[in-house]
Amino acid sequence: MISKPDSPAPAVQSIQRSLSEICDPDQNYFWEIPRRFSEYTSWLQLVLNHFTRSSQETFSPSVETSLKGIAGDLKKAAETLSVYRNKSKIFVLIHCKPLCASLHECSIAIGGWLALLESALIDNPDLRKKVSDLSREMKQPQFRVTENEERVFCTLQKEGQGRQTSKAVQSAIIMDLARALGTEPGDHGGLAEQIELLKNDVARSNSVSERRILMSLDRIVDNWSVEPDITGQNLEFDREEDVHIPPFKNFICPLTKEVMKDPVVLESSQTYERTAIEYWFKRCIEDGRDPTCPVTGQVLNSLEQKPNIGLAGAIEEWITRNIDIQIKSTVQLLSEGSLPSADCIERVLDNIYKISEEHPSSRYKIRDAGIVVLIINMLKNSSKNIGSQLRSKALMALLSMAKDEDSKVKMLEEGTIRLAIRSLIGRSEKEREYAVKVLLEFSNDESCCVKIASEKGALVVLSSMAGNLEHPGLSNLAEEILKRMEKVEDNVESLAAAGRFQPLLTRLCKGNGEVRTDMTSILGRMTLTNSGKEQIARQGAKILVDMLSRPGERKPSLQALYNLSTLDDNATILVDSAVLPALTDIVLRNQDVLSDVKELSASIISNIVSNPGHWELASADKKGNLMHSEAIICNLLELLSFASPKCQVAVLQILYGISSSPQASDRVARHIKSSDGIKAIIPFLEHQEADHRICAFKLTRILSEKLGQVLVDGLRTSNKIPLLKEKLLDNECTDDERSEAAYILANLPLFDDEVKTVLGTSLVGWTVVALREHRRSSSQRTSRATSRMVEGLIGILLHFSKSSDPIIQGVVQEHNLMTIFSEQLGFPLNSRMKQRAALGLKYLSESGRALAAIRDSEPQPPPGLCFSLMFMCGRASMVPTTCPIHNVACEDDSQFCLLKGNCIKPLVDLLADEDTSVQIAAVEALYTLVSSGTSHGLKRAVDELEELGVIDTVIKLFTEVRPGELQDKAILVVDRVLRVDSHAQRHSVNQTLVRALVEAFKHGNVNTKRYAQDALTNLKQLSGMSGKNSTHSRGRRR
Asked: Which parts of the sequence belong to the U-box domain (predicted)?
């Protein structure tokens, strides 16, 4: 270090510090460029010592400027040199060209500043000459990176771009890098150490390129460090001569580190695998640099590659010997009674696969040695024991051997296809992958495609795999197999059964007559899923309908159409395809067709009309008649008399279907009535075949709702009303028949004597028991038959609740029918059941009113004579208390008093029901409570109902409903309530009620207007007619 007693200028101090750092004798630069630059700085240090000894205390401006310039550039150079000194060698290689350029610029700049200093040293010729010489040298620095360093620099920059590299290129990169680092490529520890140093250097770097280079080199060095196992596996050979022969060192390619297949010699006398060295040359050219020999680093003048024939022959002989050894050992191991360890089997299978793939000419040796059969037998006999991993390895070996045609034939004979299909549902994805690849290999052959399709479950599994997008690779392979199979005619039916209908549909739509018939026959006998039925209907319905016009194609087309018609959603598609005119022509007009053709046609129609939909508006014949037209209905009824049994069932189903449609039911009922069709239907109620009876009962049930009187007249004439009761009570009958019989009986308008004599009072007890049993056994989800049975049983009890016969009334009291009806309202019922239960309460309440009137007008009978009053009120109490509703004494167990039976609240709750018919029935039942003729009795009843909340609820309902039957019924109650002065006075301030009455007066029917007028008069909102009090003038109205 330079020292001087007096203090030099700041610039000189800076120069001295930089020189001290650069010229530190402890520093030994690995790189040539920093060593040469440090030589310049050592020279500069000597010049600076001479300058400071001979200089004055003050410097001229030019000297100060030059010193400041030298100090700045020298400081910059010191920073660059610190990179060479402190960073890892690989880091320096990554930046070698920028670092070299930086020192080059600093050297030239310092040379320029020294030239300026020289011009100021006029009085010191010796110092001036030293400065001049140093200036000249530093202006012409010879800083250049070596060729090898430049190659490594370019390679690393490409790695920083994330480019993919092959194993051969990676090996060449390692060789170049090792030469640049001054180490041997085989020094794995040294290379790994340099990678660790590089990791420390880039740990805090923000450069994406540097991080990519680090990741790439780390991976390359790791791969390079792994030596391939080329000494053979220890397969426990019996004899020493069977041991695998390791390769000689010169058999190994320096780039691939594997035994060479096509060795070539370069002008550097180094031998490489042809493909590996060609790839390296290609990479060199792409990088814009001269191709080199990876081992020596020599730049090649020629890219000529001469085959190393002698070495290739030696390698071939070595390979042949080892293949024979491996085949022999494989046969030995797989032929043993008990299989060796899983690891040993896996190595054997890997070796066989490698031989087959890398040496295709040796496949015949594997085949002739029986290894293919041994592998197949292993899969057959030990599939569950060897596990998914080994099964995938076995399939991989078979897949490779399938490229040999003779081996492929052997595999087919031994059942490889079945084994592969079994592995399609293997546990591991690898097993499934190789299984589907094996099938793909075999699917190149048409006969193999047929064999694959014939295997149980194969197409289903392949179709499922093709649709599984979670594994797109397997999905694409499976789809390719299926596409190949679709080209084979014999696979069409099997593919359709697996849900792939397009091959069948394509042949159906584009094939000739014979092909169409074959495809149609397949559709007719197949069991289709709902989605399959819809797909076929959308694409093939019109073709199938068109085939109906050709006698030879008619029956298979009908079978297919029947299959499609079993899906409700297909009805619209079939109707749009004009199927109805073609079918009705066959059923109703074409007398030359066979009976089974008519049966199929009628069955298709019945399926189409089984649900309301598009068919109601579609033409059903060539004349444009609708299905529910009079012509069609009459023809169907006429057909019942001479059609075959199966056709009769289908016709009954058609009539039931169109009668069930809300749009068509009224017209169908009228046409059946006008054509006296009831007579044609009734005989089927006792047909010997159950299908006929059930269809007839269902149709009769629908007609009983529309043609009750006509139906009961027909049943009376044919004496078939008892038949309905017999069916109901017959436990041997089906649930459908019994429930339909109950429903029909409930709907028939029977005379009182028919209720008593035909139904019989004993039926009440049976019905009550049956109703309770159904309620106890019913779950949350009730079948239609059960629901209809309950509704029918309630309807049957209505017949008895309406009767005025004393004996029947006694039975009503005995079996507590009012309690039964009230209980039904506590269950989750449909609207029809609620309505019937409410009507039952209404009828019983009306009977109670009539019985009370009789008792009130007659003297008290002697004990035992007034049976009708005893069953109503029970035993006489010691202190009779009159009922506020009936004004007579009603016992607590009375079945004719809604108040005593606690039925008023359930009826009030029904007023909030969503179904208007239920609300109407509830209002009618409640009206029976206020229909008393006397003002005193009316007041007592209204007061009682006021306390129970009935009045306000009914008035609220009246104010909210629109004009119609419900309003007409509600105003009856309102009118009766407002006849009581105290209540009229209280409600007179209810403007909502007043407005509702005014609207009813304006827009209601004649009776409603009259009751609205009376109500308004009672509210003092309207003057009474003729000056008379409205209450007295209208007192007897109901």
From this structure: 246-325
Residue partners of 133: CB distance under 8 A and separation at least 6? none
Residue 787 near residue 740 (C-beta atoms within 8 A): no
Instruction: Tell me the two tokens of residue 235.
Output: 């397969």
Closest to 397 in 3D by CA, of 441, 434, 359: 434
CA 739 from chain center: how many Å? 40
One-letter amino acid of 151: R
Q: Do residues 396 and 349 touch, judged by C-beta distance below 8 A?
A: yes
Residues 665, 793: one domain? yes
| 612: in domain | no
What does each C-alpha distance from 293 to 145, 253, 271, 305, 688 come to in angstroms?
Answer: 19, 13, 10, 12, 101
State the residue range of the domain holding 203: 148-225
| Model confidence at 543: pLDDT above 70 | yes
| Token couple for 92 | 């320096």
pLDDT tens-place string over residues 285-326 = 887 888 889 888 888 888 899 999 989 899 889 888 988 988
- Considering the domain architecture, whether residues 825 and 959 belong to the same structural domain is answered as no
In this structure, are residues 744 and 710 in contact, taking their beta carbons and an 8 Å threshold? no
Q: Is 776 exposed, middle or buried (0-12, 13-18, 19+ CB in 10 A)?
A: exposed
Statement to judge: residues 141 and 160 lie in one domain = no
Residue 523 CA, distance from chain mean position: 27
Q: What is the pTM of this model?
A: 0.67
CA atoms within 13 A on the CB side of 508: 30
- Side chain identity at 570, as an amino acid letter? N
**847/702 same-domain check:** yes
Residue type, 397: A
Residue 262 carries which DSSP code?
A: S
- The backbone torsions φ and ψ at residue 870, rounded to the nearest 5 degrees and listed phi first, read -65, -45
pLDDT digits (tens, 9 = 90+) for 407-426: 999 999 999 999 999 998 88
Measured between alpha carbons, how far is 796 from 794 in angstroms, rounded to an integer? Answer: 5
H helix and E strand count, the chain: 53, 3
CB 399 within 8 A of CB 438: yes
Residue where the block lists tokens 């394509």: 506
The model's pLDDT over 628-686, given as tens digits with 9 standing for 90+, comes to: 999 999 999 999 988 899 999 999 999 999 999 988 899 999 999 999 999 999 999 99
CB burial of 953-980 (b: ≥16 within 10 Å; e: otherwise) equals: bbbbbbbebeeeebbbbbbbbbbbbbbb
- In sequence order, which residues have a C-beta less than 8 Å from that of residue 165 and are 6 or more positions away? 159, 173, 216, 220, 283
Instruction: Return the axis-axis angle of helices 708-717 and 721-729, rounded to nearest 10°.
Output: 90
Whole-number Cα distances in Å, 627 to 548, 588, 673: 19, 12, 17
Asked if 295 contacts 270 with a C-beta cutoff of 8 angstroms, the reply is yes
How does strand 263-265 pair with strand 271-273? antiparallel
CATH number of the domain that 258 lies in?
3.30.40.10
Residue of 375, 386, 462 lying closest to 425 (CA atoms): 462
Q: Which residue blocks in 640-778 are alpha helix, DSSP H? A: 645-660, 665-674, 678-681, 690-706, 708-717, 721-729, 735-747, 752-754, 762-777
Number of domains in the chain: 5
How many residues comprise the chain? 1038
Residues contacting 1027, CB < 8 A, separation 6+:
none
CA distance 838 to 974: 19
SS3 content of the chain, % helix, strand, coil (to 5): 70, 0, 30
Domain match, 139 and 159 both: no
724 and 705 within one domain: yes
DSSP state of 663: T
Distance CA 328, CA 325 (A): 5
The dihedral of CA 405, 410, 413, 419: what is its sign? negative
Nearest Cα to Cα of residue 331 among 399, 238, 425, 241: 238
| Close Cβ partners of 198 (under 8 Å, ≥ 6 residues apart) | 88, 90, 91, 214, 217
CATH of the domain at 804: 1.25.10.10
